[in-house]
TrEMBL record:
GO terms for cellular component: cytoplasm. Residues 116-196 form a coiled coil. InterPro entries: Dysbindin. The keyword Coiled coil applies. Belongs to the dysbindin family. The keyword Coiled coil applies. It comes from the Eukaryota. Keywords: Coiled coil. This is Dysbindin.
Length: 245
């Protein structure tokens, strides 16, 4: 549009320039003797008016061209802005066209979030159960450790008790052996005392024909029948009974 306007202004300028050139050529035409009565200054005012109008129109044309360039720039900016707005509107329209799909996806996402929330709650419950199971396993492990420690302590105590029993048994056997030896020694001493006393009584009987004295010994009060061993006196008793005197 502005290009055609510029072309029209340029056409007017070209026409005015051609008219002025024709007028200038007409002024330089030599006068003939027959034209001496013509008023040569008659067209100067008209020419001055045309020149003034042409200068004014030329100045106005330049101003209009500058303003046209400014307007063209503004129109270009406005066109760019309108194109940008049109592009944005097209994008908005496209987004609005996809809005049902977006809403459907949003509802699907909300449903998925609800499912994930339920899954998270289930996982949280599983984690709590796992923590309880872990605590129970730790308690069982501690219980097993305590039982193992108790079994080891019991085994150690039993081993020490068996060792103590063995030591006590050995000591008891040793004491019993010592006691038996002591009893055997006492029994032999008593047998020897009774054997000597019996020999004296037999000798006294042979010499006097009777036994009048009482048999006594320091250990009569403690004498028991099972302590007397007659096997060692059998030969002497037999010789006494078989003696003809």
């Amino acid at each position: 549009m502005f290009e055609s306007f510029k072309k029209n202004i340029q056409t007017v300028q070209d026409g005015i320039s051609a008219s002025l050139q024709r007028l200038s050529v007409g002024e330089r035409t030599p006068t003939t003797p027959t034209e001496s009565n013509v008023n040569l200054g008659a067209g100067s005012e008209l020419l001055q008016m045309y020149q003034t109008q042409w200068a004014t129109m030329h100045h106005m044309a330049e101003e209009n061209a500058k303003k046209a360039q400014i307007v063209d720039g503004r129109i270009t900016d406005l066109t760019s802005e309108l194109e940008a707005q049109h592009s944005q509107m097209a994008e908005v329209h496209s987004l609005l066209a996809h809005l049902p799909n977006i809403m459907s996806q949003l509802h699907s996402m909300l449903t998925t979030i609800g499912s994930m929330r339920a899954l998270f709650e289930e996982v949280e419950g599983g984690l709590l159960a796992l923590e309880d199971l872990e605590e129970e396993l730790e308690l069982q492990e501690k219980t097993l450790d305590l039982r193992l420690s108790l079994a080891l302590a019991r085994e150690k105590h039993t081993h020490k008790l068996n060792e103590l029993k063995s030591e006590l048994s050995v000591a008891h056997q040793k004491k019993m052996i010592d006691l038996e030896k002591e009893h055997e020694k006492e029994r032999k001493e008593r047998e020897q005392v009774f054997s000597e006393q019996f020999s004296e009584d037999v000798k006294y009987f042979k010499e006097h024909g009777n036994v009048t004295r009482r048999i006594s010994s320091p250990s009569d009060s403690q004498l028991k029948l099972e302590d007397i061993d007659l096997d060692q006196d059998v030969n002497e008793l037999d010789s006494f009974l078989n003696d003809p005197a």
